[in-house]
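wait is this the right file?? whatever heres the structure
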């Protein structure tokens, strides 16, 4: 018996491919001002999304072997999808220690940086119209959606376009103050509250918007393996220069290397390297 085709709106024409079996619950995500992205069962469809230029894979890279090798010591067999990759389980002791460090550092950072948070909030209010904070839906651990906080760095009407636009360097939608905040990563500081809520960690793969996740997963089958762990404010990809409009494949490979080697010491090394990475960042 033929399966009935999913009914989609006229704007939802671009089939972004199969979502991994492991991520069947990865979400049908919609933001009212954006094009709809439907992730249903093992199919994902996105409408009118402007795919970042770096998500296009090189010729012959469709099997995603580079990212697979970064995630697992056992090579993937032909025909296996990313759900078959072996990744280490996170033990309870490791999870408890990581959470303790997250909470302790986040509380200390909020207290020590309260003056900076307040000053930035006032400057945003004085220099442009719109809210101080933006609240964006992002994909977290296990494919669950959560609301991520950021200082607003763009015009209040930046997302009235018909489709989501991948941020880029010298983005014309940014305010002058916003460019400065983005250059030094200050716009990400409100995510300390996401850490305290347990939605994020200090260290982990950066969370992306659901519509972009659907597009990336269509091109890179192992992309949703990033959702095995909590997303982070900083990560191994970021300290290696994969921020902004840089290679999605390179970012994924670094994220999977991080997930494949769970270590508190590794987290502390990444945290220590983050200030230097921010200062040297050319892609903010």
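ok assuming it is, sequence goes like this
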């Amino acid at each position: 018996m033929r399966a009935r085709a999913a009914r989609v709106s006229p704007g939802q024409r671009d089939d972004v491919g199969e979502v991994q079996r492991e991520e069947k619950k990865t979400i049908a995500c919609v933001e009212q001002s954006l094009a709809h992205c439907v992730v249903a069962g093992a199919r994902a469809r996105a409408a009118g999304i402007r795919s970042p230029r770096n998500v296009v894979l090189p010729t012959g890279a469709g099997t995603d072997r580079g990212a697979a090798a970064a995630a697992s010591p056992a090579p993937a067999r032909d025909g296996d999808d990313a759900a078959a990759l072996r990744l280490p389980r996170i033990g309870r002791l490791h999870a408890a220690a990581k959470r303790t460090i997250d909470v302790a550092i986040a509380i200390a950072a909020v207290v020590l940086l309260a003056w900076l948070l307040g000053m930035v909030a006032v400057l945003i209010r004085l220099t442009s119209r719109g809210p101080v904070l933006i609240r964006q839906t992002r994909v977290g651990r296990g494919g669950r959606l959560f609301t991520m906080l950021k200082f607003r760095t763009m015009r209040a009407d930046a997302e009235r376009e018909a489709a989501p636009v991948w941020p880029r360097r010298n983005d014309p939608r940014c305010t002058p103050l916003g460019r400065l905040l983005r250059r030094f990563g200050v716009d990400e500081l409100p995510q300390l509250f996401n850490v305290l809520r347990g939605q994020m960690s200090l260290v982990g793969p950066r969370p992306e918007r659901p519509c972009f996740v659907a597009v990336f997963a269509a091109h890179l089958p192992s992309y949703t393996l990033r959702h095995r762990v909590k997303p982070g404010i900083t990560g191994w990809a970021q300290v290696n220069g994969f921020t902004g409009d840089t290679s999605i494949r390179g970012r994924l490979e670094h994220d999977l290397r991080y997930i494949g080697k769970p270590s508190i010491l590794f987290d502390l090394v990444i945290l220590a390297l983050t200030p230097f990475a921010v200062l040297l960042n050319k892609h903010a």
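Strands lie at 14-18, 37-40, 43-46, 133-139, 145-151, 201-203, 232-234. so i think its the right one actually
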